[in-house]
Amino acid sequence: MPAAYGPAAAPSRRGAGAREVTRYRDSGTARVPVRVVSPALLLLAACGPAIHVPPPERVARVERPGREVELCVLMQERAVRPIWQGCAEASLAPWQFAIASVLVKHPAGLVVLDPAFGRGIESDLQRAGVVSRLAFGEARTKKPLVDVLEAAGVDPADVRYALATHVHWDHVGALGDLPNARVLIARPELEFARPLRRGMETGVMPHHLKRAKRRTFAFDFTGPPVEAFASSFDFFGDGAVVAVPMPGHTPGSTAFLVRSAGKTWLFSGDTSWTSRGVELPAHKTVPVDSDREQLAGQLGLLHAYLQHRPDVVVVPAHDATALELLPPCAPGK
Q1: Each residue of 156-214: pLDDT tens digit?
Q2: Ranges of each domain in the chain
Q3: In Å, what is the CA distance from 301 to each residue of 88, 227, 234, 279?
């Protein structure tokens, strides 16, 4: 979650063409004294690595061929929280919080990005422990992915591929409920998860991966540069769904570039929980990221896309406003 405001930082001298972003105290939303919104957390986040935004030419548009696909969102939890819980902003402005999956309709078969909650969500919360349950809330506010798929007229057995931005429990909890899905996860992320054993460890519940172990395959970023990313992995070889490395939140965190409705949708996982964190840009309040230096660079890159590329839609994984730019999955659509 968020970080505190401090004096504007001096311009960075590291990295040619990079600039350090000033964190403004007033950005048009209601402000409250920092003491009201957990000053210790905000101060901790404010001490995070400086976020450097690359120059516009780094994210300049380069035409590339690619198939367009249909997308829709499978909402599994929605709530309103204060923005200070999601990014380093001392404000009580609302954060439209969400946990969701995205359905991709590709000719090769149905794809689910970040299959979130499984049927066992209640037992997952019990495994998580008291502190985690206080943070995550109750099972009654959450819908298993299979229920949302079925309500949309999709048989979970018809899903052919499951992709994950990272392996935290709220992004892979439904892997075991998609019996015919081939699970594809970046190799560094699987290697990060492999030694984990406890019920909840660094955000990972290993039993989710174990349930789909025989259907899980690692992929490597062996493809050419795409957009501002040095390497890639094109799942279908047609430019429709392309994975790019975005480490920082976890060692193998991945973003997905998906072509739909004349735009490129950049599903950025938990690099930022909120669109506001990309807009400012700002770290999360709680230092839950595996490498905050790496993450700072990713935040700067996402901010550059937001500023200079109207054809790219940045979609943080837990921002309902961004996710709801996609139509909801529904029967016959």
Answers
A1: 999 999 999 999 999 999 999 999 999 999 999 999 999 998 888 889 999 999 999 99
A2: 19-47+70-319
A3: 18, 11, 21, 11
Structure tokens at 19: 């600039």
For the stretch 135-153, pLDDT in tens is 778 888 999 999 999 999 9
* Measured distance CA(35)–CA(137) in Å, rounded: 24
Query: Which CATH fold would you assign to the domain 19-47+70-319?
Result: Metallo-beta-lactamase; Chain A (3.60.15)
Flag whether pLDDT at 4 surpasses 90: no
pLDDT per residue as tens digits for the range 298-321:
999 999 999 999 999 999 999 999
Task: Output the CA torsion 181→102→132→35 (10° steps).
Answer: 160
- Could you give the strand order of the β-sheet that contains 159-163, starting from the edge strand earlier in sequence? 70-82, 94-106, 109-113, 159-163, 182-186, 216-219
Which tokens hold the place of 137?
A: 């809330």
Listing DSSP states for 114-164 in one string gives S----TTHHHHHHHH-HHHHHHH--GGG---HHHHHHHTT--GGGEEEEE-
Place of tokens 């139509």: 327
Of the candidates 211, 222, 207, 139, the residue with the CA atom closest to the CA atom of residue 178: 211
Tell which residue, 155, 121, 150, has the closest CA to residue 138. Answer: 121
Among 315, 290, 248, residue whose Cα is nearest residue 98:
315
Q: Which residues are paired to 95 by β-bridges?
A: 81
What is the 3-class SS of 172-232, one letter each residue? HCCHHHCCCCEEEEEHHHHHHHCCCCCCCECCECHHHHHHCHHHEEEECCCECCECCECCE
Cα separation, 84 vs 234, in Å, equals 36
d(CA 143, CA 253): 25
As a three-state string, the secondary structure of 16-46 is: CCCEECCCCCCCCCCECCHHHCCHHHHHHHH
